[in-house]
Amino acid sequence: MKRESDLGRKQITFGIPGKISLDTARIWVEPRVSKKRLEHIKGVAEVGREIALGLKLDPFPIELACWLHDACKELKVKELIQMATESGRRLTPEEEELGHVLHGPVAAIIVRRELGITNQDVLNAIAEHTLGAIGMSVISKIVYLADKLESSRPEDLTEPIWRALNAIPKEGPPNACHDLSKSCVEDLDRAMLTAITLITKNLLKKGKPIQPRAMEVRNHFIKVISAQELERSR
Hints:
- The chain is 59% helix and 2% strand.
- It is built from eleven helices and two strands.
- A two-stranded antiparallel ribbon has the order 1-2.
- Strand 1 (168-169) and strand 2 (178-179) form a beta hairpin.
């Protein structure tokens, strides 16, 4: 995995040290997670690359964030809370109660400290992949969606998201490859709303708590989609 895209040009990305490649990220993450988690991470990176290339975007920062997003997923809740607090982060009551959602923000802190990555889009994508956020960058949206579209996820979650992305499945294993030639960046917003809505319904079905921030993000994307539809109708 070289720091070059399939478009045949070297990528120069502000805030990402020249020594950092996708191999660097994989080697750094590997000892921090289980084999099963590493397979998930690899799958997320593959989906992230697929979406990026489909939208004609530079895949490198997206794949990089995908490789790093779950670096702290298997830390204990007490460790996550301690590390977040020591970094100066003010925890919400929900984060204190459901500390596992901090694995994204804590991973962003560790990535910045240990790998020297200061690119805010990459760091935000890592931090925001759990609950989403208002004002997400394109990179953040793709990493969030790639995490939900990875091949081990159930089809009743993945297929509606792919449809929202205006992606057409190709022949082969489920979730493996899609034609995104008719997709556009705006489709990311509809896919975000679809993903968050499905996740919320699943949590309600299981009787699990829903983070207020996730609902705020969902409401934000409802407004974004409504504004887009209004603009198209004019």
